[in-house]
Amino acid sequence: MSILDKQNDLPAFRQAVRGWLGDVVPSGWKARMASASNDEFIAFQRWWMAERSKAGLAIPHWPKDYGGAGLSLRHLIVIADEIARADAPQARMFTISLIHLPGTLFPHGTEAQKRRHLAGVAKGDVWCQGFSEPNSGSDLASLRCRAVRDGDHYVINGQKIWSSYSMYADWCILLTRTDPDAPKHRGISYFIMDMRSPGVEVRPIRQANGRSEFGELFLTDVRIPAENMIGRENDGWRVAQATLASERGVIAFEGAERQRYEIEAFYRRALASGAPWLRDDQLRREFVGFLAEIQAGRHLLRRLLEENERPGASASVLPSIVKLSGTALRQRICSFMTRIAGVDGQAFAMLAEAPFGSPMFEFMGAFTGTIAGGTNEIMRNIIAERGLGMPRV
Amino acid sequence: MATTASETAGPPDQATLDALRDGVAGVLAEQSGSTAVHAFIDGKRPLDRDLWSQAASLGWLGFGIPDEYGGLGLGARGLAILHAELGRQAAPGPYIATLSAAQAVADAGNDSIRQAWLPRFASGEISAAVPATPGSAALAWSGQAVSGTLRCLGAPDAGVLLAPVADAWVLVELAGADVTATPMWDPTRTVIDIRLQQAKPAALLDDGAGAALTRAMALAVAADSAGAARSITERTIAYMKTREQFGQPIAGFQALKHRAADLATKLAVADEMVAHAAERAAADADIWVMLAKAEVTEAAVFVTTDCVQLHGGVGFTWDFDPHIFLKRARLNEVLVMANPVLRDQAAAGLAAVTQAGRSALELEP
User: Fold this and answer.
1) Where in the sequence is the signal peptide annotated (chain A) (predicted)?
2) What confidence score (pLDDT) does residue B5 get?
3) Domain A127-234 top-level CATH class
């Protein structure tokens, strides 16, 4: 009997997911991945996606017509919760494939695009996002990467940046400028680009935490078939809103659940070993304050996921509130971990035990939360203007 | 509106609570708006008395009291809603003291004590006084009578005091007692000094009353703070949209927008802390109510302080609202127990729960 056969009995479904994770998640995967080469990372990500696929849990939230299981939000919460509880791998490399691509194609793609590309995701296609440019970050709509029609193709020239895992990607969802004379929001078109097309060059960006998860795309006379446009010509900004809105807390939910288990494991170890910070009044008080914020954040995320199911959810600024509060909290927690680790925590090597085995690594990594996906300053603009009705001047 | 809830058995569902919140909010918005509160503060209107009789007739005073004693049995979640709405309108009156004392009696009293007292609280016949910081001092107990002085939260005409003696708690009727009101910066609640000499307690409760009182007060104060902070933030943003400088509404300046967004985010987190504390009120060694009181009252002081500042000059005037909420937030911050001590107690509770092999962080039952 498969896991999906138990979907009508939520506790049994949870037990089945838990059992599957217990069987499939290899012990010590985290330590291995901490020092893995790029090839090992990719192989591991592909293996994990294949295992999820075998269990029917690769794309469980998609409609059955497109190969999904049509599972409800409550099931997704159970899956994410159990994955976090088991400390199972994240499907990092497949974030765009699993969330942003369907979030875009379901509302705006042609039937042919959906049939072809959604099927590929279940088979392990890696997608990346070609949105930001060196001169178009927070001001995304000012993007300049050009697409010029040439017969039944468009020819692309320009540069993209901050494209996660683009070094390993098969496909790219790409924003281009098709009308440089129109107002900036009205001259943008949205394409599906084959990353193996001639003229696509990817260079990894070395990050401040030593990793290279993002790539820079250099596009020189890349030819994209016109049928690969999503939506109408010059209507790409509207389509992009669906992409940008597609995440709405799903990744953050799993992240918050993981953080809860990390913090608990950290605390249990501190208690067992009589960690000195527990005897420091200020540090101990700071720590218990984090717990209240962690619980509040988990409640907020559940509220957000419920809200997503209701009509009109796209007008809510709760995703921005969740991102702003959650990523700032993560930064403060990582800062705390760094302070209590002393000089040892500044050594480049991992400390003996995870979680927070390398507090500086986590602290440096926390900037991906506060900067990526719209900086927290952009979140504040959104909360103030759309949520609080403060005027744009 | 509130009476229908008494028909529900078991914990109230979310729809019931939402309807109650709307009902309470509607009445308070009408009765305890800015003009009414300013008139009260300036001694021109007995808003506290008017609201008290309104609250009694609408069943608010029985929100947390079990049905069989004349209440609505709405539990901690219902009480959190009521206190948040009272905070929103800076409603004057001895609600935190009375409703929290009622919870302590409901939790720690035997049936005859409950029968004797809970209907009187639910009907509004008497209000209660409780120590402003319940753990800080106790009355002397001769075995027959109590003596001593306590600084209490409560109205000058409070009918009964709930107070600690050595290892128990007593209810003492206050008719004819020496009660002095202390003028406070917060104009919407009253603190009184009660002097008792050989007063005979009306009832004796075990030490569980102290924990129950502290828990109920912590939740009430946290909820009141969250409501007060949200309300003044909304009023402040509304003001910023009308106040023009440099030829535009100041709400258009990005520096101020970002401050407002941060306040809104703090409020969203604070609301969830209160909701979580109400859900887990008596569980996990009271960790979550203690943390909610510490975190939310400090957030409310931050928010209300910023609301004075965001108003500019008028924020420093008596006639505008921000100072009322700031003063309410500052009193809330120091009630119940000092916040660092609450955090220490929460940490001790967390250690105990963890060492017992349990998790204090489960959300799903």
Assistant:
1) none
2) 36
3) mainly beta
CB neighbourhood size of B144 (10 A): 8
Complex confidence, ipTM? 0.94
Output b/e per residue, A51-73; b: 16+ Cβ within 10 A. Answer: bbbebbbbbbbbeeebbbbebee
Q: Does B283 touch chain A (CB under 8 A)?
A: no
The partner residue sitting opposite B260, judged by closest CB among A296, A384, A393, is: A384
Task: Tell me the chain B residues in contact with residue A288 when contact means C-beta distances shorter than 8 Å.
Answer: 287, 291, 343, 346-347, 350
**With contacts defined as CB-CB under 8 Å, which chain B residues touch A300?**
268-269, 272
CATH at B341: 1.20.140.10
- How far apart (Å, rounded) are the C-alpha atoms in residues A177 and A285? 52
Per the listing, tokens 């765009």 go with: A96
pLDDT of residue A1: 64
CATH of A4-90 among 1.10.540, 1.20.950, 1.10.3470, 3.30.410: 1.10.540
Nearest to residue B246, comparing CAs of A118, A393, A330, A336? A393
Closest CA to B349 of A75, A288, A216: A288
Q: Which residues of A are catalytically annotated?
A: 247
* B108 is a domain residue: no
The mean of the pLDDT values for chain A is 93
Q: Which residues contact A100 (CB under 8 A, 6 or more apart)?
A: A127, A129, A173, A243, A246, A247
Rounded Cα gap, residues A287 and A337, in angstroms: 10
pLDDT at position A355 is: 74
C-alpha distance from residue B224 to each of A28, A64, B83, B228, B315 (Å) = 48, 48, 5, 6, 21
- Beta-strand relationship, B169-173 and B128-131: unpaired
Does B272 contact A385 at a Cβ distance shorter than 8 Å? no
